[in-house]
Amino acid sequence: MDIYTIIFLALAVFIFLRLRSVLGQRTGDERPPMNQAARDVVRGGPDNVVPMPGTVIDQAPLAPSADPATPVDRWKGIAEQGSALAQGLDQIAASDPSFDAQHFISGAKSAYEMIVLAFANGERRALKDLLSSEVYEGFDSAIKEREQRGEKVETRFASIDKASIVNAEVRDKTAQITLRFVSQMITATRGKDGAVVDGNPDKLADVTDIWTFARDISSRDPNWKLVGTESGH
Known about the structure:
Radius of gyration: 26 Å
Number of helices: 6
Number of strands: 5
Largest sheet: 5 strands, antiparallel
């Protein structure tokens, strides 16, 4: 070897050792990166369906309790242990092992915002994919009356401050979950001449809604649909 070959070999070894010290070595025990799409709440696919998934991706199993006699509080932060709500969530989880309450709440918040905005804009196609047939008929009727009067609704969300599950149950293979949404939004209805006939386009309004979502747990369709709405206090 000539002197230049020796110098280049020495430099290559030096660079390799530096990179190894900075980046470390793979041991074979590293966890693969989570698919970014799986982390995000799905806000609607090609057909505007907003799934509220139950599958938890890449989640470590719950650590066993120090005292085997102490039950694991699986709904911590969502339902009080031993409460009727916790029992209802247990029923849903027993029928659908993939159900995850936190993921459901995240999906429900996305569905709530999407439905409110679709109703304000009169987007029937989006609503039809997210609502039960009975609820859709009510929404569609309200949109028709608004269109006949020549009115337009302006709605903008400022925030969804809280979304909490208040009831859960399984009825005849249908899981039902009711949530209480507390949000702030700006909403106003304008008449044909553009004058405001309801609401205030410059003022935030505090809004509380009680919505119920349902899913046929005997079906492979993972999507929940809105089956009931009422104003909260």
